[in-house]
Tryptophan-rich sensory protein
Amino acid sequence: MLLLFGFLAFVFAFAGLGGYVTSTNIESWYVDLQKPSLTPANWVFPVVWNFLYFLMGLSGWLVWRSAGGFAPGGAALSIFGAQIMLNFTWSVVFFGLHSPGGALVEIFVLLAAIVANIIAFWRVNMLAGLLLLPYLAWSLFATYLTAMVWLLND
């Protein structure tokens, strides 16, 4: 059970870093961008992302536990780590570098990593794979938002 907190700490560390990059650019850069009509209010994003990061941490822990450790779960957990880092990278590219176009390219790589993560986790623990489906759904919506911000501001 202690390692559950380790998985949660891992994902929330990246969430915190991404949140920092994001928050320092909301009022100074993002506020002036043209956004699509389906853009949620700013307060929605941290609520949704905290829930999704909790599900990610829980799913990673379930795979670790079901596989019997890091070595047996290595491939699936490596994909997991990669997609967490790619998720953080999107924040750096979009908010830190102010590059919606670059973030759009990056998010397609992230989507592929999320799908690979779901498949890898599903093979070890079906529930762990299912827990990542809301993350995929929100990331698809984020892809739409990213594309529209790029189109509306390019």
Q: What stands out?
A: The helical segments are 2-26, 44-67, 74-96, 100-124, 126-131, 133-153. DSSP finds six helices and no strands in the chain. The mean pLDDT is 97. The chain has one domain: 2-153.
